[in-house]
């Protein structure tokens, strides 16, 4: 028997999308919430698990999960 849950999938993203998001994340005028979402989207695209994202960004696991669902 395999795991009871399905591993989270990577967020498909083109290089243009990745560059655009990266630029938004580096823009000092971007609201903190928007920057957090950008960083989470980029980490999801890299294939990181929700728990790893939460630990890396020092946010709660439910917050990482919420943003992933919205991606």
Which radius of gyration do the C-alpha atoms yield?
Answer: 13 Å
Cα distance spanning the termini:
30 Å
**Anisotropy-based shape:** globular
Secondary structure tally: strands: 0
The biggest beta sheet is recorded as: none
Helix content: 55-70%
Q: Would you tell me the overall average pLDDT?
A: 85
Low-confidence stretches: none
Total number of helical segments? 4
Strand content: under 5%
Q: Helix- and strand-based class? A: mainly alpha
* Helix-strand string: HHHH
Describe the structure.
With about 70 residues, the chain is mainly α. The protein has four helices and no strands. The protein has helices spanning about 15-25, 30-45, 50-55, 60-70. Helix 1 (about 15-25) runs antiparallel to helix 2 (about 30-45) and helix 3 (about 50-55) packs across helix 4.
């Amino acid at each position: 028997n395999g795991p009871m849950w399905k591993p989270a999938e990577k967020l498909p993203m083109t290089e243009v999308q990745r560059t655009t998001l990266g630029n938004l994340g580096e823009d000092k005028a971007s609201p903190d919430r928007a920057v957090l979402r950008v960083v989470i989207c980029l980490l999801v695209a890299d294939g990181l698990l929700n728990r790893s994202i939460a630990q890396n960004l020092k946010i709660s696991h439910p917050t990482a999960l919420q943003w992933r669902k919205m991606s």
